[in-house]
Amino acid sequence: MSLTVITHDAFARHPVPTGHPERPDRIRHVWQAIDDGFSHLPKLEAPEADNASIARVHGERYLDFIARQQPEDDLIALDPDTHMGRGSLEAGLRAAGGAVLAVDQVMNGATDRAFLAARPPGHHAEPDRPMGFCLFSSAAIAAQHARANHGLTRVAVLDFDVHHGNGTQAAFWDDGDLTFASSHQMPLYPGSGAAAETGCGNIHNAPMRHGDGGAEVLAAWRDHLLPQVRAAKPELIIISAGFDAHADDPLAGLTMQAHDFHDLTVMIRQLAEDVAEGRIVSLLEGGYDLAALKASVTAHLTALDDA
Ligand SMILES: [Zn+2]
Predict the structure, then answer these.
(1) Which residue among 124, 163, 184, 262 is the active-site one?
(2) What is the pLDDT of residues 22-57, one digit of tens each?
(3) What count of Cα atoms within 13 Å lies in the side-chain half-sphere of residue 67?
(4) What's the 65 CA to ligand 1 centre distance in angstroms?
(5) How far, in Å, is the centroid of ligand 1 from the Cα of 162?
(6) Domain regions of the chain by residue span
(7) 262 part of the active site
(8) What is the architecture of the domain spanning 3-305?
(9) Burial class (CB within 10 angstroms; exposed 0-12, middle 13-18, buried 19+) of 26
(10) Which secondary-structure segment (H or E) carries 83?
(11) What pTM was estimated for this model as a whole?
């Protein structure tokens, strides 16, 4: 059993306006967590995704559309939260490409589990538009790549970012072989994620209340979300690993601690070993308090790395 880390220097070169929470220091703190505790792990560089990988989720013309937005110098806003500057396109393409490489590594048997340390995040990007700090829907791109290139039929994305993964949900909405399970604070950005949003029976949302912490979130996964995922018999587990449900996060009001992310990851690993031959691809999403992000990533990787 093994864990591989995938990242790239380009993830520190996606610029954002001063004061923006999704800033380059985030990835530097994640790298510090990896250097401090996980320097023994194999590390690979994230390649840029090709158009075919992106088009499976976003359509043939989306990459051209995003590439045309990239400014020469200053920053531009694609929506009130989502910006591009010099370096953003490369970072976005490597975030998507790193997710694809993570699938390849796991499916080829080079590793049992892979963690992609990337920014920008991906789970808010919808099939036809960038949104909420996200340019490309990395988790959905990874799932579709696993089906197109590795012969899988059923893939599940498990999303414990504090915000609802509207982009992944939209990409999976009417495909019963793709399962999406999410815990998230509600009401909160982006506004979706009600329990009544069920797709074709493949979408499982567990909205949490302001103030809920590890006990409530882990109970939602143990009692509701993981049994639904287990019943779907996914052949690969993809985690949208956001750490902004931490108590110290400035963007939300849940009260998880770093050790809760460890315990939740252990539960997900057990499910993966039961139904998906242990295959896990974990993709970094949010987490905006730098110390909490570092501690939570350390906890998550500890659970993924343990033999
Ligand atoms: Zn988030």
Answers:
(1) 124
(2) 999 999 999 999 999 999 999 999 999 999 999 999
(3) 12
(4) 25
(5) 5
(6) 3-305
(7) no
(8) 3-Layer(aba) Sandwich (3.40)
(9) buried
(10) strand 82-84
(11) 0.98
